[in-house]
Every structure is written in C-alpha cells, then in structure tokens.
Amino acid sequence: MKNYMEDVIREVFTDLLKTNPDFCRCEKCKRDVMAIALSKIKGSYAVSPEGEIFARVEQTDRQVRTDALLAVMEAMRQVTARPRYSSDTASTLEE
Fold first, then answer.
1. pLDDT, mean of each 10-residue run, the chain (95 residues)
2. I need a surface site. Which of 4, 22, 30, 92 has the fewest CB within 10 A?
C-alpha cells in the first residue's frame, strides 16, 4: 500500500525549496514540513495495479497539485515560525 500524495507533496516541496533559499534544509525541518503537509490533505492510497494507475493519473490533476502547494506553503510557514531545534543546532545541521 502506498500513499501517492506523498510523491506529490515531495515534488512540490522540492520545487518550493528552490525558490526559498532561506528555508532550513536540515532533515528535521524537511520531515516536519512533509508530515504537516500530508496531514492537511486527503491521502490517495493504492493496493492494486488498477488503483496505482488511477492514483498516478490523479497526481497530475491541477487541483490536487494546487492543494498540495497550499499545504506545503503553510507547513513551511509553520516550521519557520516554530522550528523544533535551537538556532545553534540549525547552523551545525546545515553545514
């Protein structure tokens, strides 16, 4: 079983990181953004070959990608406002 929305969120997040150079790149912040964004949108799970095809087609839907973009942007805002580490730790993690 796979949640195909995870792929969409990851793609959108990767694109947003390219245009937001000030966002922390540590693994903790990236995982937090993924978790927050995934919790805000409906999952798209597949357990059969037919379901996998449907899920992959849904990934390209404009509304699905727009919802993912909004969820990731909000998650990035939340993580930036309240990172779960001290600022001293962040500089060490990014090197």
1. 90 96 95 97 82 70 91 98 71 44
2. 22
Cβ atoms of 64 and 8 closer than 8 Å = yes
Tokens in use for 26? 């540590």
CA distances from 65 to 22, 26, 49, 59, 85 (A): 23, 24, 22, 7, 30
| 22: helix, strand or coil | coil
Q: Are 41 and 5 in contact (CB under 8 A)?
A: yes
pTM for the predicted model, two decimal places? 0.80
